[in-house]
Amino acid sequence: MPLVTTTEMFKKAYHGGYAVGAFNVNNMEIVQGITEACQEQKAPVILQVSKGARKYANHTYLIKMVEAAVQECPDIPIALHLDHGDSFDICKSCIDGGFTSVMFDGSHMDYEENVKIAKQVVEYAHAHGVVVEAELGQLAGVEDDVKADDHQFTDPAQVQDFVERTGVDSLAIAIGTSHGAYKFKPGQKPQLRFDILEDVSKRLPEFPIVLHGSSSVPQDFVKKVNSYGGAMPDAIGIPEEMLRQAAEGAVCKINIDSDIRLAITAAVREHFATHPADFDPRQYLKPARQAVKDMVTHKLINVLGCNGKA
After folding, report:
1. Which of the residues 83, 86, 144, 259 is marked catalytic?
2. Which is it for strands 45-50 and 20-24: parallel, antiparallel or unpaired?
């Protein structure tokens, strides 16, 4: 099937008590690992591209790799999404360039400016058959060009006004997740504001909610990275049981990026340490691709609950 929007994905996810995984892609091995897992598990998937990924891999290369995945995985719906588009221009570029979904991230702006530009993006996107995600509140942490020192939790009192005035198709909210691999301090108990999520879902019935910064930072990856020469002390993520709880409610899309990076880095570091004579990139990128596939398979079944939902 051709690339799809997230509309039907989210409708089924909302009523089915699961979430669709939105996995960030930067190169061929990541695309392959994700989509092979989804094809085997019969799971819908969102492949998302950040501003940084477009700089690194080039828009055209990314599009062609995703098109190849669509051809190789004909049994699953695949959406191509812009992650954290911070201007109308980058959203327009991706809409014109073949994306089926874009995120306008105006969370760094004041409320009225966020509303104004989000509405512009929606009008252009909908005229081209593309759906739009926006964000209210702000996540702490670092992801490519997205940086914030502190959480700004979403104000539930704003969400209905924002959605009605902009016409966005889904909304990312801030309830305590954060970008990167260092989401909590050592000894700090991970917590998500499920009270905010519940309040938002009451104000926006049957409306798809998105969680950014939702990697769980598996400690086996962290230990492997560190045991083979890495330096990632105190890397802590979101507990998977909390993400599963969110997926059973109004959250229809859960973003995962850092876990992919960790899976690849752990596999490559292990390979270099145990096969010091290898110099062919295929030798160490093959286990890296398998590590991504295994990790995504676990997420589809045990965290997102979207296996068998294609």
Report:
1. 83
2. parallel
Q: Is 83 a catalytic residue?
A: yes
| AA identity, residue 248 | E
Residues of the chain falling short of pLDDT 70: 140-151, 182-184, 187
Strand partners, 24: 48
Specify the length of the chain in residues: 310
Q: Identity (one letter) of the amino acid at 233?
A: P
Tell me which residue of 119, 130, 187, 128 sits closest to 4, measured CA to CA: 130
pTM above threshold 0.90: yes
Task: Give the DSSP H/E element, type plus range, for residue 238.
Answer: none
Q: SS3 of 307, please?
A: coil
Read off φ and ψ for residue 159, nearest 5 degrees. Answer: -65, -40
Give the chain's radius of gyration (CA, Å): 18
Q: What angle do CA 2, 7, 12 make, to 5 degrees?
A: 105
Q: Are the beta carbons of 87 and 120 closer than 8 angstroms?
A: no
Query: How many other CB atoms are there within 10 angstroms of residue 43's CB atom?
Result: 26
- How far is residue 27's CA from residue 120's CA, in Å, rounded to a whole number? 31
